[in-house]
Amino acid sequence: MKIEKNRTPGFWKPVQPEEANGYWLVMSDKSAIGAATCHGGHSKANAHLIAAAPDMLKALKAFRDLTRGMTIHWIDGSEKRSFAETTAQADKAITKAEM
Q1: Residue 64 belongs to domain spanning
Q2: Model confidence band, residue 32 (pLDDT cutoffs 50, 70, 90)
Q3: CA-to-CA distance for 30 and 33, rounded, in angstroms?
Q4: What pLDDT is attached to residue 21?
Q5: How far is CA 55 from CA 10, 26, 41, 45, in A?
Q6: Residue 11's closest CA among 22, 27, 24, 32?
Q7: Which helix (H) or strand (E) holds 10?
Q8: For residue 5, what pLDDT is reported?
Q9: Is 77 a member of any domain?
Q10: Does residue 16 contact residue 24 with C-beta atoms inside 8 Å?
Q11: Residue 79 buriedness (CB in 10 A; 0-12 / 13-18 / 19+)
Q12: What is the dihedral of CA 48, 28, 36, 40, to 10 degrees?
């Protein structure tokens, strides 16, 4: 059974209000409510990372689905590598993001 999660809808973007004292907001274009507030030494970088999270999750799922069961064979036949470990890491990160 798939459990639906409540998430702030829409495209997220980092915003620094004019009166901000070093803090950044992550805002949705579909809601007046912010998805996150970041403050401290890395607030700008954190806001940009949080704003990119939905797109990164979507890309990681696509990568995982594409590489599941794939094996690389070098042209000279010297190495054979499976994507099993990488796929497992992607599954773990996706599960963490969807908790």
Answers
A1: 12-97
A2: low
A3: 9
A4: 82
A5: 11, 14, 25, 16
A6: 27
A7: none
A8: 64
A9: yes
A10: yes
A11: exposed
A12: 40
**Average of per-residue pLDDT across 20-27:** 85
What's the token pair of residue 12? 């997220």
Buried b / exposed e across 22-35, counting CB within 10 Å, b at 16+?
eebbbbbeeeeebb
Structure tokens at 39: 């403050």
Asked if residue 5 is part of any domain, the answer here is no
Residue 91 CA to residue 10 CA, distance in Å, equals 24
In 3-state terms, what secondary structure has residue 34?
A: strand
Distance between CA atoms of residues 67 and 90, nearest Å = 10
pLDDT tens, residue by residue, 33-69: 677 888 888 888 999 998 898 899 999 999 999 888 8
Could you give the 3-state DSSP secondary structure of residue 1?
A: coil
Is 7 contained in some domain? no
Domain count, the chain: 1
Residue 2 included in any domain: no
pLDDT tens-digit profile of 54-64?
899 999 999 99
